[in-house]
Amino acid sequence: MQIKVQPKFRPMVWGNHELNKKFNIETKDPIGEIWLLSGHPLYETLLEDGRTINEFGRNIYSDKYPRFPLLIKLVSTNQWLSVQVHPDDLSAQTIENEPWGKSEAWYFLTDGEFAVCEDIDMMREYINSGKANRLDEILTFVKVKSGTFVNIPAGTVHALGPNSTVIEVQQSSDLTYRIYDWGRPRETHIEKAMKVAKNISLDDIIFENIQLLTTNYFMFGKTMPSAQAHKGIVIHIPTQISQDFCATIILDEITTSQMHQCGLYIYNFLK
Question: What is the pLDDT of residues 13-22, one digit of tens each?
Answer without folding.
Answer: 999 999 999 9
